[in-house]
Amino acid sequence: MSRERDAVLCEMGLGPIWKLREQTAETVPAAATPAVVRVSVSEADTPPPPAAMAEGAPPDHDVPLDAYAFDSRPDDDDEDATPTVDDRAARIAAMDWVELKQSVAECRACELCKQRKQAVLGVGDVNADWLVVGEGPGADEDERGEPFVGAAGKLLDAMLDAIGLKRGKDVYIANSVKCRPPGNRTPEAAEINACAPYLQRQIALLQPRLVIALGRPAAQTLLGREVKIGEARGKLHAHRDIPLIVTYHPAYLLRTLPDKAKAWEDLVFARRTMQKLKNS
Ligand code: SF4
To answer: Which of 54-58, 172-176, 256-260 has the lowest mean pLDDT?
Structure first.
């Protein structure tokens, strides 16, 4: 292991426990969702599928199964299909970044508006290839108006640094909900659904090459189905036609040190996938 990698791992708090496994040729689905992924990722590029989440291991979050804000399929429904976009969503879908920021700041579409100090739209490069999506603002984020600025934010920055990214440069960071759930609880299905048009619009404006979903709520929101991180990580998924990789939320990793090693594998997978996307 190189000195540089040692330094990165130490920065992620992985020094004492970190050990990358050998890559194996086990088959990983090219896309676990019906959406098309326009990248070829060889088996050797893919970390070995993780052992199923250990029996009794705590999930990183619990989210009700109806919390699926997005349908991950492309927009190819026929005209007779029941409309799923209401007037509010349609208005949001037409907004630019300035309008989006203003709208989120004034939004009272769900209960989360009641206790927030401020809504947190997101931060970063609006021309980024990378989009990182988390769950929702915490206390620090609510205070400062920026996602991932507390302890979990520091870890996220270290994770980004490990794959050569810096906050604000070629990466945009957003959350599934833009207002802090009281007590940092998991957002409810209705809240995720109410906020989904904002995330959808962010994705439409950004058109990222690759999305990283941090934690179960973000993964379920973007994939539109139940997700267990231990089973979903190590595979290439898609939100609509945008490649998507799932990994653990930094807040979970702060509580569950051994899984940081798995997160590193996911980041390596993401970096290689991005390379493939840029070369394709
Ligand atoms: S969480 Fe989203 S939908 Fe709910 S009030 Fe905040 S911005 Fe509006």
So the answer is: 54-58
**Alpha-carbon distance 212 to 101, whole Å?**
22
Q: Is 234 a residue whose pLDDT tops 50?
A: yes
Distance 138 CA to ligand 1 centre (A): 14
Which helix (H) or strand (E) is 122 found in, with range?
Answer: strand 122-124
- For the stretch 83-141, pLDDT in tens is 455 899 999 999 999 999 999 999 999 999 999 999 999 999 999 999 999 999 999 99
Centroid of ligand 1 to alpha carbon of 177 (angstroms): 6
Q: Find out whether the beta carbon of 8 lies less than 6 Å from any atom of ligand 1.
A: no
Nearest residue (by CA) to ligand 1, atom 4, is 110
| The token pair that represents 241 in the structure block | 């036609």
**Looking at ligand 1, which residue's alpha carbon is closest to its atom 2?**
195
Q: What local confidence, expressed as pLDDT, does residue 186 receive?
A: 94
**Domains along the chain with CATH numbers:** 3-279 (3.40.470.10)
192 close to ligand 1 (CB < 6 Angstrom): no
Two structure tokens written together for 258: 């051994």
| Whether the CB of 191 sits within 6 Å of ligand 1 | yes
- Strand bridging mode 210-214 / 130-134: parallel
| Cα–Cα distance for residue pair 168/255, rounded to 1 Å | 26
**Contacts of 153 by beta carbon, 8 Å cutoff, 6+ apart:** 140, 141, 147, 250
Q: Which residues pair with 279 in a beta bridge?
A: none
Instruction: Give the per-residue pLDDT at 86.
Output: 80
The 3-state DSSP class for residue 172 equals: strand
Q: What was the pLDDT predicted at 280?
A: 87
Instruction: Assess whether pLDDT exceeds 90 at residue 31.
Output: no
Exposed e or buried b per residue across 250-275, where buried means at least 16 C-beta atoms within 10 angstroms of its C-beta? bbbbeeeeebbbbbbbbbbbbbbbbe
